Amino acid sequence: MIIAVAGVAGTLGGALLTQRGSQRAKRLEIELVREHEEVRENRSLRRACYAELNRDARQFTTALNRHLHVMRERGVDESDSDALEEAKNAHRDRYSEAQMIAPDEVLSRASAVNQALNKIYGQVKRLERGVPQPGETMETAAHAQYEVWELLRTLRTAMRQDLGVSQEH
What is the pLDDT of residues 108-117, one digit of tens each? Predict the structure, then answer.
């Protein structure tokens, strides 16, 4: 009788241990899949944000350049100001998004671009109103706008490295 009870208990115990081990393995597998999906979703989110940030920063830079040319050639009208504001607002929105998802290395580069663009924007608007600060001229604004392109290249490189697209340093 004792042998029979021990045999039944052993059989039931073995089945229970096998089931628990199987459940634990399944739980680990689900956690790994979930973590993998989270990493993939995060990378996808960053990729979309980076593409839009790159585009909007470049468009803001181009809009500043165009605005300076318009100021030299004919004077600014409302549609010119609206186009510049639209580019500025698009960049602001994308930069705000990047602040929430970009790692520090990318964010520091994005911040440098953002600061440079806002500084140039202020300079352009003061020139447009005819109240520049000392040393602000159309030439200094154009030169500062041109220098943003190097900051944009550095930002793009940092974003590509973060996404694993480029290994350059």
Answer: 999 999 999 9
pTM, two decimal places: 0.74
| Tokens standing for residue 116 | 């440079």
Spatial CB neighbours of 49, under 8 Å, sequence gap ≥ 6? 94, 97, 98, 101, 102
DSSP for the chain reads -HHHHHHHHHHHHHHHHHHHHHHHHHHHHHHHHHHHHHHHHHHHHHHHHHHHHHHHHHHHHHHHHHHHHHHHHT---HHHHHHHHHHHHHHHHHHHHHHHHS-HHHHHHHHHHHHHHHHHHHHHHHHHHT-PPTT--HHHHHHHHHHHHHHHHHHHHHHHHHHTS----
Q: Residue 74: count other Cβ atoms within 10 Å of its Cβ.
A: 9
Please choose, from the candidates 165, 129, 155, 158, the residue with its C-alpha nearest in 3D space to the C-alpha of residue 56: 155
Nearest to 155 by CA among 97, 111, 89: 111
Q: How far apart are CA 164 and CA 55, in angstroms?
A: 19
Q: Evaluate whether 148 touches 120 at the Cβ level (below 8 Å).
A: yes
Q: Please give the average per-residue pLDDT across 36-52, as a whole number.
A: 86
Residue with token string 């290249």 = 153
